[in-house]
Batch of 3 targets.
Target 1
Amino acid sequence: MSRVYNFSAGPAMLPEEVLKEAAEEMLDYRGSGQSVMEMSHRSKTYDAIIKEAEKDLRELMNIPDNYKVLFLQGGASLFFAQVPMNLMKNKKAGYILTGQWAKKAYQEAKIYGEAVELASSADKTFSYIPDCSDLPITDDMDYVYICENNTIYGTKYKKLPDTKGKILVSDVSSCFLSEPVDVTKYGVIYGGVQKNIGPAGCVIAIIREDLISDDVLPGTPTMMKWKTQADNDSLYNTPPCYTIYICGKVFKWLKAQGGLEAIQKKNIEKAQILYDFLDSSKMFKGTVVKEDRSLMNVPFVTGNEELDANFVKEATAAGFVNLKGHRTVGGMRASIYNAMPMEGVKKLVEFMEKFEKENS
Ligand SMILES: *Cc1c(COP(=O)(O)O)cnc(C)c1O
């Protein structure tokens, strides 16, 4: 068996310990005689799996009792619509545009009401986070929306925007569980799990209870009403059972690593290795302003498309896969989520050093 270092933005690497444990339990989950894939979501065994996953997540993130945790389907992209459907009482909300995912959420919200652009970093290919200290937020806005870590462009809010008392809704798909967060600062935190937590197929949403009600936009499908999901503990219909089971294992893995503070420390150290190299290299350059750099997604370029393509090709052959950057940025992108071992980043940097020597 030979595993590669997978720098994919998502679906992405999972901890090897988790995969091994899942493999061991594949045919017979703890004496049940079945795989978790084959199990009724109404069984006692499965109920214990989903309840324990929620309990561990609550512990990891220190989620207060007045927040619900929902396991949903449809990806982050379907959640873009659920936000206005459940929160747009005045049919008006503010959006900060820091990249493609924020823009898509903003465009989706426009279907349901007035989505106002509060700030944007489109002028410089989303290579920075705009100043959010005094945004043109008006009293009639229902919420302020951000994409907290911009997967494609590699930027991250280091400080949350001043929402002037409005509810903050945050897409944390690509920075979920990468560092401790103060849940009380948000109305809604959500993300697809396939970036930093588990396999594709599930969105985890952490929603303040008072934001969950029957007062939704007319025409909201039953499944997209948060109250339906909250009242049924995410078991209104069949949930993505196996994905939730793997997420549960990743939560246990994170706890064993020492929780989110320990993971943050490791993530800072890991990203620093790559950023330090980018700052010293004559060939490779980071594309993001230093103060807004993400710990999870690191885009970089050589400035020469042919060289970029050669690098990606040679890196792939050497076992560093999925390094090709998003087509709107070009160049390369290394996604170094929680499950990417330190060794993977060190070896990538060694490979980059070698490539630089050979090609200059
Ligand atoms: C990947 C991604 C999405 C889209 O997720 P899907 O689950 O594929 O819909 C949304 N937001 C962010 C920040 C992402 O990284």
Target 2
Amino acid sequence: MAVGYLRPTKGVVNCQAIYNNIKAEQQHIKNNAEIYAVVKANGYGHGAVKVAEVAKKAGATGFCVSILDEALELREAGFKEPILILGVVDPRYVYHVIKENLSCAAISLEWLEAVLEEWPKEEVGKLAIHVKIDTGMGRLGLRTEEEMKEVLDFLEKHPQFYLEGLFTHFSKADSADESHLKVQQERFSKAIMIFPKDIPYVHTSNSATALWHDNWKSNLIRLGASMYGLNPSGKELKTPYKIEQAMSVITEIVQVKKVPKGEALSYGATYYTSEDEWIGTLPIGYADGFTRDFQGFEVLVDGVRCPIVGRVCMDQCMVKLPKGYPVGTKVVIFGHDRKGNSISFQEAAEYIETINYEIPCVLSERVPLVYVNECD
Ligand SMILES: *Cc1c(COP(=O)(O)O)cnc(C)c1O
């Protein structure tokens, strides 16, 4: 896919913000837990390799990804640190997991047996696994005591599996309502009793658990959202320390025109000018991850909030300007401008009724990432 290097639309990532967000979490930890930076989905759209570099400098001791390809990307980039794959690895690729010294989630007895079936013929060493307990997310992992005992039994018989970790994932650690969290915590406490005491890593903490629940029973924190400066609760809970959104999305006006009153704009003619209006065209559209739901949302032009008028097209959209700005005028789509005005991912998420995580995640490959304040 062609990346839009020659177009003014960019994702600008402030490395110092990521660094500071991790340092702030380190200060907040009370039990010496390690931080694994979660860089799945290309680092939530911020660029996995660069985020991993910055996180390492800030003191992250390992990384979490969701799929094997993401782990291999980090290895190819030269990272020697531990990498935990949180999603389900296809048992056919167990050779690569072992060879690249990766750790992966073990989600069921069935999965372990399938891995055994695919075990490489040559001498490869052990497979490091983190057994996943499904305490109430309903996504991956063992649910019953019986399943846990079967898995332990299996592991005893098959020493080529190295039980490196035991973990679970909380679905609602980011809310003032802690009732479901309590259910999950209770179940995980029971699971811990069933497993051996000497497992190196026991972990439950995503950002929310790290921020608001003292990384409950975790000697490893899987830090995602808060590292990127995204509040996992949206607006519900205040973060105990300040975090800063690391990414801004910027562009420039590519055409400006005065459109007479009563004229239609964009596909479907959903907008008619109510007076003679200054209209600017921006080179960003839904193919860039700037979805059509943003019709009517605002962008920052010269510190002024300007509405997106008419439909967002595949590659472009139009904004109503207060005056005839010159072509080339800088526009902030998300993030802050030099004057301190800002439109956060949170605000954007609320507008399109999603969560802040999703906005940077869906930015497409066509939008090049530019790194500033590189903490060298
Ligand atoms: C994505 C993910 C995380 C990171 O969650 P954040 O809310 O972004 O901190 C942690 N653990 C698992 C299992 C995940 O899938």
Target 3
Amino acid sequence: MRTRIAGARFWLLGAGAGIVSAAVLLAAAELMALLVAREASPLLAVGSFVIDIVPQPLKELAISTFGEYDKIALLAGLGLAVVVASSIAGMLELAKPFAGVVLLTVGAGLATAAILTRAGVTMFAFLPPLAGAAAGGAVLWLLARRLRAWRDAASTSSPGAGAAAGDGSSSTADATAEPAAGASAVAPSRRAFLTLALVSAAAAVVVGVGARAVSAATSSIAGIREALRLPAPRSKVSIPAGAELDVPGLSPLITPNSDFYRVDTALTVPSVDPQTWRLTIDGMVEQPLELTFQELLDRGLDEYAITLTCVSNEVGGGLVGNAIWTGVPVRDLLRLAKPTGGADMVLSRSVDGFTASTPLETLTDDGRDAILAVTMNGEPLPFEHGFPVRMVVPGLYGYVSATKWLTQLTVTTFEKDEAYWTPRGYSAKAPIKMSSRIDTPRAGTPIDAGGAVIAGMAWAQTIGIDRVEVSIDDGDWQPAELSTPLNDDTWVQWRLGWEATPGTHYITARAVDNDGTVQIQERAPIAPDGSAGWQRLLITVR
Ligand SMILES: Nc1nc2c(c(=O)[nH]1)N[C@H]1C(S)=C(S)[C@@H](COP(=O)(O)O)O[C@H]1N2
Ligand SMILES: [Mo]
């Protein structure tokens, strides 16, 4: 009985040795990544790889369950997987020398494969996982050897010593306590194991956390962005009188950067130095070209107000925002590169490998202000929104147009190339659908009877909103008051006074665009090309 419990404790210590070795592996890899290839951090690369391969329904489930914390949840899940796998490696190594080392090496090999699938990998990207596997494997081999020596000493020494080494409850605290009696053969081997385990664990934490911190601190891009002084725009967006309605609970006309929705596949926000940033324009062009940040700025900046919308925005949702951007029209740069006949698409690429497919004619259209943006609401693009350069195209959902951390425009065809989301269940082409949203009152928040205001936002990018109508309890459509539009590429605000009577009421909103098209009632899901339908809310009036 006693030996069985003692055995269980050794298996547990074996698992612990595995976890310590995995920590050493990750820490050594982080250190090597800091030195030679920052993009090759195994945990982050595997995380990014997982983001790219999980099927869309699972992604949506993750977002609906964890919301903004989806990426933290992913890392926690990966951490758990590492703990489980390395525990198994530790026990395997205890059972059979090198068995666990092989498992660790396989893990590092998988991480290497994940790293090599990342965009922007350098030639030394294999070194971090290799260094990690060497360090982690060596530590595991040594720990298991010392653990076996301890176990053998414990089982061959006197019954008293055996009892001491393997005494009952098997907590690690027990293991550090002095044995009761006659354990002279056990003590040195136990000490040897525990010393190595503790030193390795401590070193892994110090080195791993240190390397990450240094990596973050020395990516001085934050400082560079702070110090960046961009030329003033040649032209400014004029905000007409009446552009903004004053209604409590109504979204502001211009969305502050801190409130602007963020959607991307980037596990860590790319940091791109504007000094080394280059934009390549290639593919089906007569004159391929490369542009520096300064050369882009030298073309002159103009201000544009454009409302950006995500294809994943549900009816009534918040994945839409309006900003004032400064930038350079994409058509001017394409004109320099001279697209050749037959091309019908521009594949824009981010430094992290994300791609978007935008119709060439949309980008060359003189009537459409597709831009390469460098500022957002008066400051350099925030890192999360694509610093230093992103694309913004009025009237197209973000996933087919709004590439952040932009680095390449390849003129091509829809037949030849496809973008990130196309094989993942979304249309290759995706104009934004007209929509209207009720911001106030809110379902689930009762209001007082009497004079109330129903208000919200509506957008029909590139065409413009003609009117918004509201129906209460499915009665007649009543026209709402509209804010003065900034242009046809931005949303407008609307409001309607309402004498609310006690009870519950349905309120429904719909928009009509400047072409006279009425927003369609029928609901559509976000995939493959965006949600549709009227928003209809049940409101309680007290
Ligand atoms: N590099 C990169 N750019 C990207 C994406 C991405 O995943 N990676 N997502 C796109 C999508 S789906 C949308 S809706 C917009 C969102 O831009 P925002 O995060 O600035 O609001 O960015 C687009 N640009
Ligand atoms: Mo999106």
